[in-house]
Design goal:
This protein is α+β, with helices and mostly antiparallel strands. The chain is built from seven helices and nine strands; from the N terminus they run αβαβααβββββββααα. It has two domains: about 210 residues, q2cbj1_9rhob like domain (Jelly Rolls), CATH 2.60.120.620; about 55 residues, no CATH class. It is about 20% helix and about 20% strand. The strands form two sheets. It has a six-stranded antiparallel beta sheet. It has a three-stranded antiparallel beta sheet with strand order 6-5-8, with no helix packed on it. The termini are far apart.
Length: about 270
């Protein structure tokens, strides 16, 4: 089955893996996301840039789940998912074995009336001949054309240009998947969140895994509380890139990557 998914991603740019987690687990994660969103969202910087990817006025979004609850690492480091990512994010690197890490950690639930997103890519580098970023979406609800699902253009990860949203996008398809499924795709794939017609819940965990030299969406060194950091395994610290921090100066070390995990700055997650 592993070879099947890898072949699909090479050819189409994406693969859907069904039934990775149970309905019970999906409900548990959804309840946690609702609770977390209610707790923190009132303090968000206002993001209402209409018509852009930053417009969050018609969806629930939770950011930086790594600093909210350790339970999320169970999904961050799912063995099957990481085996697939190894193929794409280590390929072409030195000895095909350089590290990658989580450069985006969030969850989204579009609300009824959400108009969806413009077609886009997440790597900012169309046409590169090796994978820069891989996206992983964990669906905690069934997704379909009415429910704000993901829209993709199969094979577009090989295109050498950005999507032109002033023209009709051809050959796009709507992802249909059951809760507990995972969508894995090359971040160069043209994709978008579709409009939300019904009022059903549609929570999804949205993760980006990137080669070590790509900047993260947020600075984990500055937003990981010390008490949480001390509970992380070495693998989990590496997933957050704590061994990828550039040196402070030439007296500290010379290599851009470290053989040990840097300790984060002081940070307290206030409510």
């Amino acid at each position: 089955m592993l070879k099947k998914y890898i072949h699909q991603i090479h050819k189409k740019g994406y693969a859907i893996i069904p039934n990775i987690i149970s309905d019970h687990e999906c409900e548990k994660y959804k309840k946690l996301l609702e609770k977390t969103h209610k707790k923190y969202s009132k303090r968000y910087i206002d993001l209402r840039e209409k018509g852009t990817l930053a417009d969050k006025s018609s969806e629930k979004t939770v950011y930086n789940l790594h600093n909210k609850n350790l339970i999320w690492f169970k999904l961050f480091q799912n063995k099957l998912v990481l085996k697939i990512l190894d193929v794409f994010l280590k390929d072409g690197s030195y000895l095909n074995n350089e590290p990658y890490y989580l450069n985006n950690i969030s969850a989204r639930c579009p609300m009824k009336g959400n108009k969806g997103q413009l077609m886009h890519i997440d790597s900012n580098l169309p046409g590169v001949n090796y994978t820069i970023v891989m996206n992983v979406m964990w669906y905690f609800d069934d997704v379909n054309e009415d429910n704000g699902t993901t829209v993709v253009v199969p094979g577009s990860h090989k295109f050498t240009k950005y999507a032109d949203n002033n023209k009709k996008i051809k050959n796009k398809i709507y992802i249909n998947a059951k809760k507990g499924s995972v969508l894995i795709f090359n971040a160069n794939l043209w994709h978008a969140g579709s409009s939300k017609i019904n009022k059903n819940s549609r929570w999804a965990l949205v993760l980006g895994y990137a080669r070590w030299f790509i900047k993260p969406s947020f600075d984990y060194m500055k937003n990981t509380p010390k008490e949480l950091y001390n509970k992380l395994t070495n693998k989990q610290k590496s997933l957050l890139g704590f061994d990828l921090i550039p040196p402070k100066d030439e007296f500290t070390r010379m290599r851009r990557r470290s053989d040990f995990h840097e300790k984060p700055d002081k940070y307290k997650l206030n409510v």
